[in-house]
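Quick sanity check, DUF3078 domain-containing protein:
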Amino acid sequence: MKKLLYLLVAWTSSNLAVAQDSTVVTTNFKDTVAVVLKDTTYWQKSFSGGINFNQASFSNWVGGGTNSVAIGAVVAARALYEKARWSWDNTADLQLGYVTQTGITRKSADQIFLNSVTGYKLSPRLDLFMSGTFNSFFTTGYRYDNLGPGQERFKISNFLAPGQLTLAWGLALKPNDWIAIRLSPFAPRLTFLTDGEVRYSVVNGIPIRDPNAVAYGVQPGRSVRTEWLALQLQASLNRNLSENISINTRYQLFANYQQLDAIDHRLDLILTAKINRYLTTTFGFIALYDEDFSTSLQIQQTLAVGLVYNVSTFRKKAK
């Protein structure tokens, strides 16, 4: 009877699919047998949401100062599907923040970044892939410096003004679990402009509303610009430097084959230090050079301490 039971268990285990976990089964004969169970989910998911808050107030303070309140929200989410040679990796990085000083509220951070990558494994380190990347802003953005007489602010951006969608096909190199390099010789990009009020010209250093101006590369009278022939290079690094410190870095190069003298570059970096289960310090840095947006290097830097909530079903890699 025991032999029959062992044969039955062995036959069942040999017919289970890949992506398996093991469990221990105790039989009526007080024997223990390791049985491999099929993983029917194939999904790994993570979510991190945080709220940052800063406040300062002064009363009869001889050193001077300005009352201020700042609040911001950050969300990072990921969903990864893996089965046999196929994978589907989806990420979302969202950020929105405001600061109020002397009764005036201004936006301090704003980002929508969505990325979806489908891959087919050719070898342990090389994938064929296709991807879609979208980035824009949640709300209206304003300029506050070098304005005309009587102007307190000047609209320069909005949701989908601009917004960019880049589709890419190519090869991905993954030398290890925390580095990925993707090269796409064909990466068409759509630039959206759904708010004509962000079109302006600069006269003597002062922005002037101009409906006939080219805005973010989109010609007057149009709401979309399509760059069909383009190349994209992406590199990402996501690693835990220690038990409580992690770094997430993403670099993107975009080159229109017809304008190789105007290559776009974007670097995103997030360094997170965990203080305890619910409290973290986060340093964020974005550097962007895109001549359709500005002829100068654009930089955004944030440093915040706040509450954070994390949940993850990602399996730990075997050492």
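Posting the structure with no commentary besides this: The longest strand covers residues 104-123.
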